Amino acid sequence: MTQVIRRDQPDFNLSLDVTFPKRHFLAFGAATNIVATRRVAPGRRGTAWRSALCVVLATAAQFAPITQAPAAEARDVAVEIAFTWTSRDLSTVTTGEDSDAFAAESFLVLTPNAESGLPNLGGYCVALGTENKTSFESGESGNCVFRDIDGDALYEHYSVAAPDGDSPSRGKSIFTGGTGKFAGVSGELEVESKFYAKPMEGTYQGSGVKKGTLHMPAF
Fold first, then answer.
1. Beta-carbon count within 10 A of 22 CB
2. 8 Å CB contact between 135 and 97
3. Taking the mean position of all CA atoms in its chain, how far away is CA 33?
4. Which is it for the CA torsion 18, 21, 24, 25, positive or negative?
5. pLDDT tens per residue across span 129-152
6. What one-character-per-residue DSSP string does 155-173 give?
7. CB 140 within 8 A of CB 104
């Protein structure tokens, strides 16, 4: 802060020229000089000094630097993500007397637990798998992209298997990052998924849950 004082006789003019550092004005984009002038009669100089000083101090307080709250930090979070899925065969090839290989696409809705801080997500997956047509033992692995209402993407690779047609599929879900708020998300979750219905030929529906710990960026 710089201060310039000027006295003119006989009426005594008091002029204070206060300059603030440029960083104090980053949020305003304004000029950096403020001048407070008070014209007083002789014999009232003490009052003039106090009045002018009040003006300067009030102005300085108005343009004080803004202190930002500390940025949130990345953290490890326990998550439980319920999901529903609809899967559709893209192609099926008979690879033996009792076995098929298939390519499929799936559409999912993910509903994470509130404590995770994750929003609800919609997803699309493409998978390759095999199935025994006698025992109905099956396995598949695929890749998914999930998106929230803002369009930010979260990427996943998964692999699951079931010993028969009545048992749920179990396996691993590995999150490998994303875009926007999901950049830096990583971790491995346990997956359990159950088939419930075949509403039309070549289409399957079910639900499941993913549980584990994810490393979450600050958002």
1. 8
2. no
3. 41
4. positive
5. 999 999 999 999 999 999 999 999
6. EEEEEEEESSSSSPEEEEE
7. yes
**Helix or strand (DSSP H, E) at 58:** helix 45-62
Please count the structural domains in the chain: 2
The model's pLDDT over 1-35, given as tens digits with 9 standing for 90+, comes to: 444 444 444 444 544 444 444 444 344 344 444 44
How far apart are alpha carbons 12 and 14 in whole angstroms?
6
Residue 158: how many other CB atoms lie within 10 Å:
21
Whole-number Cα distances in Å, 77 to 74, 100, 195: 10, 39, 28
Rounded distance between C-alpha atoms, residue 102 and residue 130, angstroms: 6
In the block, residue with structure tokens 């803002």: 150
What single-letter amino acid sits at 18? V
- Domain range spanning residue 119? 75-216
Sign of CA dihedral 74, 80, 85, 89: positive
| 145 within some domain | yes
CA distances from 122 to 2, 153, 156, 178 (A): 59, 10, 13, 14
Which residue, 184, 189, 176, 174, is CA-closest to 219? 184
Are 34 and 80 within one domain? Answer: no
Which CATH number do you get for residue 163? 2.40.350
CB 190 within 8 Å of CB 169: no
Q: Which amino acid, residue 49? A: W
What is the identity of the amino acid at 199?
P
At residue 181's C-alpha, the angle toward residues 66 and 214, to 5°, is 115
Contact 164, 135 (CB under 8 A): yes
pTM of the model: 0.67
